Amino acid sequence: MEERATFNEEFIKEKRRQDMRHQVLTFSMLIIFTLISFGMVMSDLNAMFVRMVIILFAVVQVGFQLYYFMHMNEKGHGMPSLLFYGGCFAGFLTVLGLVVLTWW
Amino acid sequence: MTEQDIMNPKKMPLQPEKATLEGKNKFLGFWFFLGGEAVLFASLFGTYLALNGSLNGGKSAEEMFGLPLVFIMTMLLLTSSLTSVYAMHHLRNNDFKRLQLWMSITVILGLGFLACEIYEFYHYITDYGFTFRSSAFGSAFYTLVGFHGGHVVFGLAWITALIVRNAKRGLNLYNAPKYYIASLYWHFIDVVWVFIFTVVYLMGVL
C-alpha cells in the first residue's frame, strides 16, 4: 500500500512536469503569434488582409490563454465555460451592435 | 472537512484550490465574474471602435502610437502571465516558497508594465495635448486602456496583499483558492491586453 502511494505520487509529479512543459510551449506559441502580428503591421501587406489576420491571431492567442494558462482544458470547467462564454456572447453582441450602428 | 483539516491539511489534495466548498464556490463565482468583465470590456471596445475617428482636430492614432513601447508592454504582460502559471504549478506541488517567489516575479513584471503605461499616457498628454477631454477619440481611448490599467493596479495590489498576508502562514486549503483566483484574474488582464494591442495599437497604426 505504501509503495503504491509513492508510485502514484511520482506519476502525478511527472504529469505535472509534463503539463508545465505544455505551458511553456503555449507561451512560445503566444510569443510567435505576437511577433507575426507586429511584423505584419509593419510590412506593406494589404491593410484589410492584415486586419483580418491579426484579429484571428488575437482570438487564437486568447484561446491558448484560456485553455492552457487558465486551465480550462481540465475537467470540471463545464459550468464556468457556460458562465464565461455567456458573458462573451453578450459582449460580442454589444461590439457588433455598436460597430454596425456607426460603420454602416 | 473540519477547520483543522483546512488550516493544517495532513496531505495536500490534487487540486488544493478546489478542495473545500468555499474554494469550489469561489472558482465558479469568479468565472461568472469574468463573464461580466468580458461584457464590460466589450462595451468599451465597441465604444472605442465607434469613436476612434472623432479626432476634434487633434492627432490621430497613427500619428501618436509607437509600436516599440507597446511591444515591450506586451512582452512584460505575457511573461507575467507565464510566471503566474509557474506559481500555480508550485501551488499544486505544495511548494509554498516557489509559489511566493513566482507570484513576486509576476508583481515585478506587472509593475514594469504599469510604468510603461504611465510613461505612455504622460507622453501623449504633454507632447501631443491628447487628453481625456480633447476629443471623443481621447475619451474612448483613455477609458478603455485606462480601465485595463486600473485592473492591473488592482491585480498588483491584490497579489501583493496575498503574498504579504500569507508569508508566515504557509499554504493551506484556506488560502490556496485565493492564490488560484488571483492568478485567474491576472490571466484575464492579459487576455484583455491581447485585444487592446491588436484592436487599439496595431489596427490604429495600420
Automatic annotation (TrEMBL), chain A:
<keyword id="KW-1003">Cell membrane</keyword>
<dbReference type="GO" id="GO:0005886">
    <property type="term" value="C:plasma membrane"/>
</dbReference>
<dbReference type="InterPro" id="IPR005171">
    <property type="entry name" value="Cyt_c_oxidase_su4_prok"/>
</dbReference>
<feature type="transmembrane region" description="Helical">
    <location>
        <begin position="48"/>
        <end position="70"/>
    </location>
</feature>
<keyword id="KW-0812">Transmembrane</keyword>
<dbReference type="Pfam" id="PF03626">
    <property type="entry name" value="COX4_pro"/>
</dbReference>
<protein>
    <submittedName>
        <fullName>Cytochrome c oxidase subunit 4</fullName>
    </submittedName>
</protein>
<feature type="transmembrane region" description="Helical">
    <location>
        <begin position="24"/>
        <end position="42"/>
    </location>
</feature>
<feature type="transmembrane region" description="Helical">
    <location>
        <begin position="82"/>
        <end position="103"/>
    </location>
</feature>
<keyword id="KW-1133">Transmembrane helix</keyword>
<keyword id="KW-0472">Membrane</keyword>
From TrEMBL, chain B:
<keyword id="KW-0472">Membrane</keyword>
<feature type="domain" description="Heme-copper oxidase subunit III family profile">
    <location>
        <begin position="1"/>
        <end position="205"/>
    </location>
</feature>
<dbReference type="GO" id="GO:0005886">
    <property type="term" value="C:plasma membrane"/>
</dbReference>
<feature type="transmembrane region" description="Helical">
    <location>
        <begin position="184"/>
        <end position="204"/>
    </location>
</feature>
<comment type="similarity">
    <text>Belongs to the cytochrome c oxidase subunit 3 family.</text>
</comment>
<keyword id="KW-0812">Transmembrane</keyword>
<dbReference type="GO" id="GO:0019646">
    <property type="term" value="P:aerobic electron transport chain"/>
</dbReference>
<dbReference type="InterPro" id="IPR013833">
    <property type="entry name" value="Cyt_c_oxidase_su3_a-hlx"/>
</dbReference>
<feature type="transmembrane region" description="Helical">
    <location>
        <begin position="28"/>
        <end position="49"/>
    </location>
</feature>
<dbReference type="InterPro" id="IPR024791">
    <property type="entry name" value="Cyt_c/ubiquinol_Oxase_su3"/>
</dbReference>
<dbReference type="InterPro" id="IPR035973">
    <property type="entry name" value="Cyt_c_oxidase_su3-like_sf"/>
</dbReference>
<keyword id="KW-1003">Cell membrane</keyword>
<feature type="transmembrane region" description="Helical">
    <location>
        <begin position="142"/>
        <end position="164"/>
    </location>
</feature>
<keyword id="KW-1133">Transmembrane helix</keyword>
<dbReference type="InterPro" id="IPR000298">
    <property type="entry name" value="Cyt_c_oxidase-like_su3"/>
</dbReference>
<feature type="transmembrane region" description="Helical">
    <location>
        <begin position="101"/>
        <end position="122"/>
    </location>
</feature>
<feature type="transmembrane region" description="Helical">
    <location>
        <begin position="69"/>
        <end position="89"/>
    </location>
</feature>
<protein>
    <submittedName>
        <fullName>Cytochrome c oxidase subunit 3</fullName>
    </submittedName>
</protein>
<dbReference type="Pfam" id="PF00510">
    <property type="entry name" value="COX3"/>
</dbReference>
<dbReference type="GO" id="GO:0004129">
    <property type="term" value="F:cytochrome-c oxidase activity"/>
</dbReference>
<dbReference type="InterPro" id="IPR033946">
    <property type="entry name" value="Ubiquinol_oxase_su3_dom"/>
</dbReference>
